[in-house]
Amino acid sequence: MHDIVSAHCLDLFAGTGILGLEALSRGAAFVSFIEQDKVLTQHLKILLQRLTVTAEEMEVISSDALHWLDRQSAAKRYDIAFVDPPFAFDIYPILNKIAENKIMNENAIVYIEQGEALVPEHLPKSWHLYKHQKSGQVHYHLIRCGR
């Protein structure tokens, strides 16, 4: 993984929160968990309390990803984003909104899991796909964010 220690991370489409939890276990300073399913967000809050993760280390928000992104600005920036939407989801509006709102620091990393390979030409202008792998039906992507 990219340099997780002291990183501010975004776990978009958090689901069970496994990617953000792994980041916290590796020394991330803060994780924002964004998940639309209210039952999953409640379970995640309970789990984080049991693990004694403090409010200074995380936030759990029950929201649609695009709706949440619409309310964000560059005042809060992330070093790493984990984006793991449902397989049939159109990822490009999400990626464009992340870039448009400038919520990623320069040289930040975006990790994406999805059911199809990304088309580099459809990525935000200053973003660069630098790693892609496939395992079964899952495509894994690492993107470096520029300015």
SSE diagram, text form:
Elements: E1 8-12, H1 18-25, E2 30-35, H2 38-50, E3 58-62, H3 65-70, E4 78-83, H4 92-100, E5 104-114, E6 127-135, E7 138-145
Parallel strand pairs: 1-2, 1-4, 2-3, 4-5
Antiparallel strand pairs: 5-7, 6-7
Description:
With 147 residues, this protein is an alpha/beta fold. It has one domain: Vaccinia Virus protein VP39 (Rossmann fold). The protein is built from 4 helices and 7 strands. The chain has a 7-stranded mixed β-sheet with strand order 3-2-1-4-5-7-6, covered by helices on one side. It starts with 7 loop residues before the first strand and ends with a strand.
Shape: globular
**Biggest sheet architecture:** 7 strands, mixed
* Strand order in the sheet with the most strands: 3-2-1-4-5-7-6
Domain unit count: 1
CATH topology: Rossmann fold
Please tell me the overall pLDDT: 93
List SSEs in N-to-C order: EHEHEHEHEEE
The counted number of beta strands is 7
Task: Please identify the structural class as seen in this structure.
Answer: alpha/beta
- Highest CATH level, the class: Alpha Beta
Question: Any low-confidence stretches, pLDDT <50, length ≥5?
Answer: none
Second rung of CATH, namely the architecture: 3-Layer(aba) Sandwich
